[in-house]
Write a structure and sequence with these properties.
This protein is about 75% helix and about 0% strand. The protein is mainly alpha-helical. About 60% of the residues are buried.
Length: about 400
């Protein structure tokens, strides 16, 4: 999809905000995304501590928890394929949100170490598919009622997810400190279920405009999916450091750097603030240089961020690393889902599910790397591994952006 150039950037963003506010689906999706980000980001920095402190796991075993996410792409593909076949985007979104609530509730009340692993792998995998169905519904709405501001609207809705990530780590740390880690995890379950509320009883929008009737859905072939799978694989390498960071950066700051809780929370929270500020700028810059070219720069920011985590050992260095990581996700969060859907336009729910569930694969890769790396090289040098991953992603995206086979506006 080529980003529109017909309106000045500021006017386009104002119009996109108005369109988001007055369209029930966009408005409800924005609130749902905030709740999703709030809940998950509250739990992400605390899940390793829960496994270690409440269930007696070692640091290595706690890091390997993220391997349970390997089932999420399978669940996401199954849900996405059914969504493309039936068109029931919001119905499946609601089902997945309920499943996610049940999963987090069961994790919160776990009494044995094996329980969170099994629950996350079997039940949580389907709960994580909720967001992909929401993005598929948004795509259908933009096709049925196209405007010059559709990409900016998607970016605004995605910004709400990031806003949740601004509040979540601080709220999660506060709640865990004043109650318990189990209470905090149950609050995540409640936030996951609450995603349903802003959308009320909205029905799934039509996938086509009145003058463009819907075509029968055919399962995409593997050759047709290769560009999407290549892009998703590179995204996995970029994202792999997140699970390492959220598992080990809080432990590193508390146990080795002896930061107070407020400073540690500020370090974690600065990334989504930078991300939130940069997302609108990413859309503007992408109009001029292309989405994939901008993502090359974003991946390079990831290299610098992980080197800061591994080598500086100071609060200033960690703040700098988190600021650079904010640049990574300011670019990828604003544009990633748009690129993914454009690479498989005939099956947008499948494309959304594959791309968004790839975070689970990257979490598993990061979890395995972090667990083994922490045992071999220790903290903070474990962050050299994600630095290597993001370097490989930078090179791969650079090659992909030069390919003449990419759709117009992507490079």
């Amino acid at each position: 999809m080529t980003l529109p150039e017909s309106a000045p950037a500021t006017a386009a963003e104002v119009s996109a905000l108005r369109l988001t506010a007055r369209t029930p689906l966009y408005r409800g999706a924005t609130l749902a995304m905030f709740l999703s980000g709030l809940g998950f980001s509250a739990a992400a920095p605390q899940i390793a501590s829960f496994l270690v402190k409440d269930l007696g796991a070692s640091l290595t075993v706690a890091g390997l928890f993220y391997l349970t996410n390997l089932t999420a792409p399978i669940a996401g593909y199954l849900v996405g394929a059914r969504s493309d076949r039936t068109g029931s985007r919001l119905g499946l979104f609601r089902i997945c949100a309920v499943v996610g609530f049940l999963s987090w509730t069961a994790v919160a009340f776990s009494t044995q170490l094996w329980m969170p692993f099994v629950i996350s792998a079997v039940v949580g995998a389907f709960g994580g598919a909720a967001i992909s169905q929401l993005f598929a519904a948004i795509h259908d709405e933009t096709r049925a009622h196209p405007t010059p501001y559709d990409d900016s609207v998607v970016s605004i809705i995605r910004m709400a997810l990031t806003a949740g990530w601004v509040v979540g780590p601080v709220a999660g740390a506060f709640l865990a400190a004043h109650t318990s880690l189990r209470v905090m995890l149950f609050a995540t379950a409640v936030a996951t279920l609450a995603q349903i509320v802003p959308l009320g009883f909205l029905q799934t929008p039509a996938a086509s405009s009145p003058d463009q009737p819907a075509e029968p859905h055919h399962r995409p072939s593997l050759p047709a999916m290769l560009p999407l799978l290549t892009f998703t694989g590179l995204y996995v390498l970029v994202y792999a450091g997140e699970s390492i960071k959220y598992a080990y950066l809080p432990i590193y700051m508390a146990d080795e750097l002896h930061f107070p809780a407020g400073l540690s929370g500020a370090v974690i929270g600065i990334q989504p603030l930078v991300e939130l500020a940069l997302m609108p700028l990413a859309v503007v810059v992408a109009r001029r240089i292309g989405m994939l070219r901008l993502m090359v720069l974003g991946a390079a920011f990831g290299v610098g961020a992980n080197l800061c985590f591994a080598l500086t050992g100071t609060a200033a260095g960690l703040f700098a690393g988190q600021a650079l990581m904010g640049g990574v996700w300011g670019i990828f969060a604003a544009l990633g889902i748009i690129v993914a859907q454009n690479l498989l336009p005939g099956a947008v729910a499948t494309a959304s599910a594959i791309f968004l569930s790839s975070t689970a694969i990257s979490s598993a890769l990061g979890g395995a790397t972090g667990g083994l790396g922490a045992a071999v090289v220790g903290l903070p040098h474990v962050f050299l591994f994600p630095a290597t991953f993001t370097l490989l992603a930078t090179l791969g995206l650079a090659l992909m952006s030069r390919s003449a086979a990419q759709p117009r506006g992507m490079t």
